[in-house]
Amino acid sequence: MKQKAVLQIVACLFSLVLFSCRATKITRATFPSDTTARNIDSLSREKEHALARNILEKVRANRIEFKTFSAELKMDYDDDKGKRMNNLGVNIRMEYDSAIWIRVAGPANIEGARILVTKDSIKIVNRLEGTVMLRNVKEGQEKLKLNMDLRTLQDLIVGNAVFLSDSISNIVTTQSVISFASLQPTLVSLFNVFADDYVIQQCKVTDKDSTAVNSRVMELTYGDHKVVEGRKIAFQRKIYVEDKNVVKVALDFKRMEFNKPQSFPFPIPDKYTRE
């Protein structure tokens, strides 16, 4: 597992990272709210604002709260350079607002990489190449091309809405899906939520300036929702990332647990090369 591949896997695992040949099949979503030509005469401004407040309230009521979280899952990775790494075994442990611990393994549960993210640092041990990367948060974000804080990364992993502001617009409703847009200073987020329970179905995040060089696109699709300890959670996730390259990731969760004691072992052999 090359160091560059490990970094790509880590970045995709956070958006909120060798062995087989089947491709990751991901169908990209459509978002009715993604339009510049929109007739809102059918709704008064006041009614539209009330509808927006109601949608935000119900979407946020689905937020998954936790003190600790652990999960086991399978991961498939596919990019436009022909790299495919499938049936990776991934273990995740988290303590909210404190740490994210990830172990990635291949066939026979042979460990390939271990990652530890805290408020202050990002650490990656590549056991197949005998290397270790230690960075403070700012350096790690630059290295991994991530611009998210620890809480946002944890929300992304557990399945909470990310990049959702207090103001939404371009609301389109159908019997089955509600679509809307959410603006941040530098990003535009589009959401599709189920009309009956307001659980997130799909999310698309793009740069606000779509004409920028290497404008980024990230799409998340959530499926196979199950109730775990009173929380409705998507056990299947599809991730599509378009930056300088196109990357596709499929996550298939096998087990999730909440609020159980967790440890974050991270031994670093002395002989490993520092990157």
Describe it.
- Helices cover 16% and strands 43% of the residues.
- It is α+β, with helices and mostly antiparallel strands and 275 residues long.
- It contains four helices and 14 strands.
Please give the largest β-sheet: 14 strands, mixed
Query: What structural class is derived from the secondary structure elements?
Result: alpha+beta
First and last CA, distance: 15 Å
Oligomer: single chain
Average per-residue pLDDT, rounded, comes to 81
Radius of gyration: 19 Å
Going across the biggest sheet, name each strand in turn.
7-8-9-10-11-12-13-1-2-3-4-5-6-14
Which parts are unreliable, with pLDDT below 50 for 5 consecutive residues or more? Answer: 1-9, 14-26
**Annotation field: number of helices:** 4
- The percent of residues in helical segments reads 10-25%
Q: Tally the beta strands.
A: 14
Order of helices and strands: HHEEEEEEHHEEEEEEEE
Query: Which geometry do the CA atoms define?
Result: globular
Q: Report the β-strand fraction as a percent range.
A: 35-45%
Defining traits:
275 residues, disordered N terminus, 4 helices, alpha+beta, 16% helix, 14-stranded mixed beta sheet
Topology of helices and strands:
Blueprint: H1 3-13, H2 45-61, E1 68-79, E2 84-95, E3 99-105, E4 111-118, E5 121-126, E6 131-136, H3 137-144, H4 150-158, E7 168-173, E8 177-183, E9 187-194, E10 200-207, E11 217-228, E12 231-242, E13 246-258, E14 273-274
Parallel strand pairs: 6-14
Antiparallel strand pairs: 1-2, 1-13, 2-3, 3-4, 4-5, 5-6, 7-8, 8-9, 9-10, 10-11, 11-12, 12-13
